[in-house]
Amino acid sequence: YLLQVRLTRAAALLAEGDLPVKQIAPMCGIPDEYYFSKLFRSHFGHSPRAHRAMGRLWRGSQPVGAVGRR
Known about the structure:
By secondary structure, the protein is mainly alpha-helical. The protein has helices at residues 2-16, 21-27, 33-44, 48-60.
């Protein structure tokens, strides 16, 4: 459960910002960036870099004012 919470937080940080994986990994409780990347890929099925790219594409396709609405 804790790993899922950490990786979900990491996914949000990757999609929303420009912090490097090297900084995000320890912020989420995983001090080794390479191990973090391995866990992330295993959990989500794609790399942290790919997740960031998808987050940027998703944000770019949202109408103005739609971010954060559900």
